[in-house]
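$ ./design --mode recover --in tokens.txt
reading tokens...
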């Protein structure tokens, strides 16, 4: 998914961070897993 990589670069994020942000924006009942990795 080249477009996702390019989009993430423009936002100074990783593709995984963009995917998680998209997921979290979909439903209010989706939450982060405590103890999961944090971005730096």
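writing sequence...
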């Amino acid at each position: 998914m080249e477009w996702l990589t390019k989009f993430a670069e423009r936002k100074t994020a990783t593709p995984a961070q963009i995917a998680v942000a998209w997921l979290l924006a979909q439903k209010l009942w989706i939450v982060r897993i405590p103890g999961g990795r944090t971005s730096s």
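exit 0
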